[in-house]
Amino acid sequence: MKKPILKLCMVTIISGLLFSCSQNEINETDAKAESQNFKVIDVTHHDGKPFSTGTSNSSPTGKYVDNPGGGVMMQAFYWDVPAGGNWWNTISSKVTAWGNAGIGSIWLPPASKAQNGAFSMGYDPTDYFDFGDYNQNGSTETRFGSKAELVSLITAAHNENIKVYADIVINHNSGGQSEANPFTGTNTWTNFTGIASGKFKRTYNDFYKNSYGNNDEGAFGGFPDLCHAAPNVQDWLWLRADGVGKYYKNTMKFDGWRFDYVKGFGPWVVNAWNANVGGFSVGEYWDSNVNTLEWWANNANSSVFDFACYYKMNDAFDGNNLALLNDDMMWKRNPYKAVTFVTNHDTDEIWSKMLAYSYILTHEGYPTIFYRDYEEWLDKNKLNNLIWIHNNKATGTTSILYSDNDEYVARRNGYNGNPGLVVYINNSDVWQERWIQTNWANTQIKDFTGNSSWYPTTQADKWVKIQCPPKGYSIWSINQ
């Protein structure tokens, strides 16, 4: 009598297993169908070339070769770095490690003497040719150090094949002497004829209001507003062989420029600088309107910081709606003129920073890493891993494969034999899995972050199931 019961039990178990397998297949089919219902968004349409930062002005090899994914920039300062004249030396001690990690360029704070001397962050410039070698404004060295130390830093960076970008503040000046101003009928602090370097002397004729008009596009903080229409200003900023731009490039050996507060003057100014001086350039046009950013970048013939991307990331990651990453950004309009960032010395709003870094370091544009994020606040090993992935895998055009409140999946489509990648960002509190379509048929892939231990093989139709940890990311490419 026991045998029929045993047989019945076996039949029940086998039936259960078959039902379970069948149910799993149905669930997998349904999961795949859900992803197939998402209309893939082909974001960019170009030949796939990476962001180019041009050739280095003075590297030992005479050129800088970007990685397959392009370059990564380090903002090598933060607001109120330690005073005392040692910052250039601090950065010098880090460039070898940064170069080994894959950093391709560093952006330095304004390097010349400003009104507050040894206490200034440099955004109130007085003498563009005093790099810490003249005793004026209460000190010889700047907050960051001496001219010799700056030159040593630039040389050390170039030895690591790292480019060096100067922060250029040409909207306003500070630290001039008082003089009678016939255009205002008052005394103004616009007499810069006594600057210690003796170069680029200025008077009220070089500031608004003057014979060229009452104002330009914008003034800042009540500082004297430099008039770029004045011939003396143009000569000394970008035309003269010994002027600011060409001296910084040819003598100091800077490779490019970050232009401060470009809302304060017309884009033609940066365009003229770039045409006469050369080098990489990016403008700080603080505006979330992508139309405005694109207008400025095109008219300035310059890259621009992608504030549209910054604010969308803030809303998406901290507002728990990753579908907002489908919205327009500068890198989507023109990836070759978009410099992306998560934090800078002026604004630090994004809370989910590692998700944001996983986004900019896998997407198009020129990603920037903030000094304190890298050196103090976040996991350096994780950032180094993302830098490596950017440099070696983040190639080609971009397609968004899926997005909702919690999940975002995008594909870089590869370029010049490089296979590209798939990035999966998960803003939920649990592990997620999703079927997605790759560019690879019958190919084993892996997560290059190590966050997932899966080694799935893509199907003949290039579809595959991948996973992503909670509040995290995974980045997949061919296992090679």
Task: Characterize the structure shown.
It is a single chain. With about 475 residues, this protein is α/β, with parallel strands linked by helices. The protein contains 13 helices and 22 strands. The strands form six sheets. The protein has an eight-stranded parallel beta barrel, surrounded by four helices. It has a six-stranded antiparallel beta sheet with strand order 1-16-17-18-22-20, with helices on one face. The mean pLDDT is about 95.
Average residue pLDDT: 93
Shape: elongated
What is the end-to-end distance? 59 Å
As laid out across the biggest beta sheet, the strand order is 2-3-6-11-12-13-14-15
Strand content: 15-25%
Roughly how many Å is the radius of gyration?
Answer: 27 Å
> How many helical elements?
13
Largest sheet: 8 strands, parallel, barrel
Structural class: alpha/beta
Give the number of DSSP strands. Answer: 22
Low-confidence stretches: none
Question: How helix-rich are the residues, as a percent range?
Answer: 25-40%
Cofactor: Ca(2+)
Family: Belongs to the glycosyl hydrolase 13 family.
Signal peptide: 1-24
InterPro entries: A-amylase_thermo, Alpha-amylase_C_pro, Alpha_amylase, GH, GH13_cat_dom, Glyco_hydro_b
